[in-house]
Amino acid sequence: MCYNERKNERKGVRIVLTKEQVYTYHLFEEILNRSGEGVNVVDTKGVLVYVNQVSAAYCNSSIEEMIGRPITDFYPDAMLLHVLRNKNERLNEKMHYIGKKRYMCSSYPIYRNGEFLGAYSVFRDVQEIDDLNKKVKYLELQVRLNQPEEDISAIVDEGGALSAVFAKAKKTVGSLGGPRHCIITGESGTGKTMLANLIYNYAKRIGVIAENAPFIEINCAQFSNPDIAAMEIFGSVEGAYTGSKRKKGLFEQADGGILFLDEAHALENYQNMLLKAIESGKIRRIGDTKEISINVIIIAASTRDLHEVLLPELYQRLAQYAMHLPSLQERGRREKERLLKRFVEKYQQAVWDSLKIRYTVHFTPEAREALLNAVYPRNIRQFRDVINFSIDASSPLIEDVKDQQEISTVVGMEHLPFELMETEPKAVAVLANAVKKKNKIDEKAHDRIMQLSAEGLGPRKIAARLREEGYDLAYYQVAYDLKKKQP
Question: 43 phi and psi, to 5 degrees?
């Protein structure tokens, strides 16, 4: 005797179930609807006989509306169609698109007692995973772009501002008398970390330190007070301060290699401990009485004149080799060109390493001149960031170059951040010449620019608004027009 009869008169689907079957059906239906994966089942003609709630939601429909209709009404390129033709399973083989949604699908044939009855598919949304992968790839790209140079010899101009510094850097670890501690000073972004890495890699290459020797870096100014910096550098024992635990310091971690103390002036009251470590080759963890032998080459760096802030004895021991890095503005044209070439090559290599795409970057003559003539208060770091920003602005998105093996881009004036022009007359002159080659800004356009600027919009947003209103003006034309009117 039947317990329940389910009937859909419009579609001619009739299912008769026992009480136990009804319970099982509802149980599995609830499980499938809560699984987070879409499920479709079709007969041999491709007509849907089962759909779960996830699948219905994918195509903005309902289960009742879908059952009894061809799957192609909802999924035109369904993988199930291939299974119906070939009667073979297809696993994670094809990405489907329904609107902006992405999903990965596996499909299987259905057999019963050797008879082919249809097929079913199970699929899941991978848009979120794709988005996460894109973010990971982007972050990997940025990490590669921002890594310090391991070898700057290729960009040091013979006889240029860096050539003498480069020669002295090699002597710090390569002289016959053995490796020495050293000091590197210079403005922020001039390449102090880059130079420290050069010394480290050169020391490994000539066998002064082992190939697997550590390079430990710490910015002493990153901590809220010098006590914390000292505990990081020298380590601590349990009970040295409230909540402290036994901890190995950076000196111990750098044993056999190099300890790079950036912004070393921030050590303040702990200079004596550093001096003792240099003189005795031993350190003592904060709060401990036991001394630990260490063999470390120290590179101290700072944006300040360490001769004025360090103890005389400490400065004397560290400054066996003292090097000062000139600002980017003090360096010659040829050196800047080499830096530009190096950063572009690094960007292209990062794209290859992350995406396996051969990427070629070109600059228009105007953009190249503007980059080389601009003033960079944050020096090489800012120069690198501006170059990367400009290439980013001219580059396609990762999702737009899928499966491509080789692409190129041209960086023009419109891709450069206008801020880099603001302090350099030569760069502004280059920009002005580029603007003259474009359509001149008439009085009506100028008035509209001033109006939008008064509303708080920047050059890029103003240019975008003007394009919507029918004006053919690049953002840097707008920026230059605004700059000309400044008092």
Answer: -85, -175
**Nearest 5 degrees, angle CA 383-CA 185-CA 345?**
30
Q: Would you state the structure tokens that stand for residue 272, as one six-digit string? A: 């004596």
User: Per-residue pLDDT averaged across 258-283, rounded?
Assistant: 90
Contact 284, 304 (CB under 8 A): no
User: Pairing relation of β-strands 321-325 and 182-186?
Assistant: parallel
pTM for this predicted structure: 0.59
Query: What's the angle, vertex CA 326, arms to CA 324 and CA 328, rounded to 5?
Result: 150
- The amino acid that residue 231 corresponds to is M
**Given its phi and psi angles, is residue 94 left (phi above 0), alpha (psi -120 to 50 degrees) or beta?**
beta
> b/e per residue, 219-229, with b = 16+ CB within 10 A?
ebeeeeebeeb
Residue 393: name the closest of 354, 361, 422 by CA. 361
Assign 11 to helix, strand or coil.
coil
CA distance 78 to 136: 30
Give phi and psi for 424, each to the nearest 5: -125, 110
In a 10 Å sphere around its CB, with 0-12 CB exposed, 13-18 middle and 19+ buried, how is residue 269 labelled? Answer: exposed
Return the residue matching tokens 């319970």: 23
- pLDDT per position as a tens digit, 107-116: 899 998 888 9
Helices (H), 147-238: 163-174, 192-205, 226-234
Q: What is the CA radius of gyration of the chain?
A: 33
Q: In residues, how long is the chain?
A: 487
Other Cβ atoms closer than 10 A to 207: 8
Neighbours of 348 (CB within 10 A): 17
**Residue 300, token pair as written in the block:** 């101290």
> How many other CB atoms sit within 10 Å of the CB of residue 118?
21
- Residue 27's Cα: distance from chain center in Å? 46
* pLDDT tens track for 146-184: 665 555 555 555 556 677 888 888 999 998 888 999 999
Sign of CA dihedral 174, 176, 179, 182: negative
